[in-house]
Write a structure and sequence with these properties.
This is Delta(3)-Delta(2)-enoyl-CoA isomerase. It catalyses: a (3Z)-enoyl-CoA = a 4-saturated (2E)-enoyl-CoA; a (3E)-enoyl-CoA = a 4-saturated (2E)-enoyl-CoA. Belongs to the enoyl-CoA hydratase/isomerase family. One of its GO terms (molecular function) is delta(3)-delta(2)-enoyl-CoA isomerase activity. InterPro entries: ClpP/crotonase-like_dom_sf, Enoyl-CoA_hydra/iso. This protein has one domain: Alpha-Beta Complex (2-enoyl-CoA Hydratase, Chain A, domain 1). Helix 1 runs parallel beside helix 3. It is built from twelve helices and ten strands. It is α/β, with parallel strands linked by helices. Helix content is 48%, strand content 17%.
């Protein structure tokens, strides 16, 4: 599922295996458990780096697992929203080192990090919902508005389902930098993490500031109006 390694004051969270890293409840729970460890094991200024093995960073929701079962769809959505909340409230800087495709919910997962680095020799950033006939939930759009400054870039992703390379992501202000390989991407993420740790910021203050910046996103996480028949509310997030 995932592994967690501590390197000095850096935490390296790796999505393990060569599958698509689909976001089903079991997988999300493993990531959330790792983030809980990060919070409890952090001593002093720290930073989190998230990366993945294989061809995919994450290919989004595990639609095969959920099928047409509304209860499973609700649970999967609620789990992802809880994970997003965990990341947006984590008391340290976060970096996504994207080493493969990041699609749909997988792109959203990456976008929740403070900094995004990506390899340029493989992988796309892709909101696939339009292509597969899914309505984008409002909390997805709240996150896009908070993280992607250009309305044209948001339109390209949400209304054209564009597949963006790392270099295209840099041009549109979606990611911070593009690198020659997976190894170079992780190496650059470690370097950035060390620089951020070197600032010796108070993690609690950092987390509170991030919560203020993304207040609208956090407020939108309470339910997903697209779950089920894409018109029914889901209000189990607060119980997770």
């Amino acid at each position: 599922m995932c592994s967690l390694e501590k390197i000095g004051n850096l935490f390296l969270l790796t999505l393990t295996g060569n599958d698509e890293h689909r976001l089903n409840p079991t997988f999300i729970d493993s990531i959330r458990a790792a983030l809980h460890r990060v919070k409890t094991e952090s001593t002093g200024p720290s930073a989190l780096i998230t990366t993945a093995q294989g061809k995919y960073f994450s290919n989004g929701y595990d639609l095969n697992w959920a099928g047409t079962n509304v209860g499973r769809q609700q649970l999967m959505s609620a789990k992802l929203r809880a994970l997003v909340s965990d990341l947006l409230t984590l008391p340290m800087p976060t970096i996504a080192a994207i080493t493969g495709h990041a699609s749909a919910g997988g792109f959203v997962f990456a976008l929740c990090h403070d900094y995004i680095l990506m390899r340029k020799d493989r992988g796309f950033l892709y909101l696939s919902e339009l292509d597969i006939g899914f309505k984008l939930p409002l909390w997805f759009l709240a996150l896009l508005k908070s993280k992607i400054g250009s309305p044209m870039a948001r339109r390209e992703m949400a209304m054209k389902a564009a597949k963006l390379t790392a270099e295209m992501g840099v041009e549109r202000g979606i990611i911070d930098s593009a690198h020659d390989s997976a190894e170079e991407t992780v190496k650059a993420a470690v370097k950035l993490g060390e620089e951020l740790v070197g600032r010796k910021w108070d993690g609690h203050v950092y987390g509170e500031n991030r919560k203020a910046v993304f207040d609208e996103v956090l407020s939108a996480l309470g339910f997903d109006e697209t779950v089920g028949d894409f018109g029914s509310s889901t209000k189990i997030f607060s119980r997770l």
